[in-house]
Amino acid sequence: MFGQLVPAGLLSQYEPAWRNLYDAHATVHFIHRWLAFGVLLVAVALWWVLRGAGAKDQARVRRLTGALALMVAWQILLGIGTIMMNVAMPVALLLQATGVLVFALAVVVNFGLRRPLGRVRAAKPHGSPAVGVRARSGPRSSVRDPR
Predict the structure, then answer these.
(1) Pick from 48, 104, 40: which is nearest to 69 by CA?
(2) What is the pTM of this model?
């Protein structure tokens, strides 16, 4: 911003200094920009970690995580384009719509990650009892299925 990595006077426009976090436009813009790069870093790191996970049931989550990283990158490019085009309404609206899609995709990825990585449930043969259910080998069987 303004030819510097950290522009001078970010927290000195208003008193007390904490008001600058939401009142000073340059400070809000600076925070917003670096949070976006942080989110991109987390999305790419998550994709990087999951690409090494070998479970077949996680392939969908790996693809969704890659899509999330790409959507966040697209969101950043739209944000830059919005600023460079002096907040042109079509680009700004596309930026907002993309933000909603990024949020929705993050929710889907979150629910996909709830299942432990690397755990694949074994398919049970048709007619076999569920785990913990007594097998029917006689009238008073107490044998449990070993699975």
Answers:
(1) 40
(2) 0.68
What is residue 33's three-state secondary structure? helix
State how far the Cα of 145 lies from the Cα of 132, in Å rounded to an integer: 6
CA–CA gap between residue 126 and residue 147 (Å, rounded) = 14
Do the Cβ atoms of 94 and 78 come closer than 8 Å? yes
Q: Is 140 inside a domain boundary? A: no
The model's pLDDT over 1-26, given as tens digits with 9 standing for 90+, comes to 666 677 777 767 777 877 777 777 77
Which residue did the predictor score with more confidence, 48 or 141?
48
Alpha helices, DSSP H, located in the chain: 20-23, 25-51, 59-84, 89-112
125 inside domain: no
Vertex 117 angle, CA 123 and 38, to 5°: 150
Three-class SS state of 56:
helix
At position 126, the amino acid (one-letter code) is: H
Tokens of 101: 């899609």
Does residue 110 surpass a pLDDT of 60?
A: yes
Give me the domain span that covers residue 37.
17-112
Tally of domains in the chain: 1
Tell me 40's DSSP state: H
Residue 139 covered by a domain: no
Residue 137 falls inside a structural domain? no
